[in-house]
Amino acid sequence: ASLATGPRQNSSIFYEIRTYDIKPSRMKEFVEMVNKYLHLRTAHSELVGFWSAELGAMNKVLHIWKYDSFAQRTAVRHALANDRDWQGKLLSSVLPLTEKQHNEVAYLVPWCQLGKPPKEGGVYEWVTFQMKPGGPALWGQSFQAAVNAHINTGYSKLIGVFHTEYGLLNTVHVLWWNESADHRAAGRHKAHEDARVVAAVRDSVRFLESQQNMLLIPLQCSPLK
Questions:
Q1: For range 51-65, the mean pLDDT
Q2: How far, in Å, CA of 217 to CA of 220, rounded?
Q3: Phi/psi of residue 99, nearest 5 degrees
Q4: What are the pLDDT digits (tens) for 9-18?
Q5: Which positions fall inside the NIPSNAP domain (predicted)?
Q6: Integer CA distances (angstroms), 56 to 9, 32, 60, 127, 214, in order
Q7: CATH number of the structural domain 108-218
Q8: Could you say which DSSP state residue 206 is in?
């Protein structure tokens, strides 16, 4: 008999989510350096996306890296430690501009595949939900229903739903894409009047401790734009 507390991804693929707080006076310089030299880092492993926060936080960047296994990540970190080009041109330049670094390891929830926006030029929304302890066995079904209810309104494109494995547990990050901030605002107003959304959210919120969101703008070097 299975003792698992909820459905899991069968794949070993995971995602490292990194958020950096940048010195306010150095944000422009940080972005310029990353756009210019990030290819030295992506030569070692796959970048999903790289964004700066526009609303909900200030002077913060968020980037997501994909790994096939923990062994691959270990090998990548070892290679980076010996990559003088990357250390000299990018790492040594951006570290003095950075105030704080934070990372998490997360898996895609089993009912979600990583998506792509229908076109370039939009904005992203990163929504973080802190759920009650107990894992997906407790809140997974209700949370999925709430996400699906928003998808069904059609105003926003789901990119990915990530559930933490390392970091603050019972945390779920949802990444959405919208054509613009105004399009997102109009869609939210419409969703608030949708009975399907209201019912699903009321059920899911029973398991919610807190939530926070950021409006993100992709950097020029970001694969997701």
A1: 98
A2: 9
A3: -95, -35
A4: 677 999 999 9
A5: 15-113, 124-223
A6: 30, 22, 10, 10, 4
A7: 3.30.70.100
A8: G
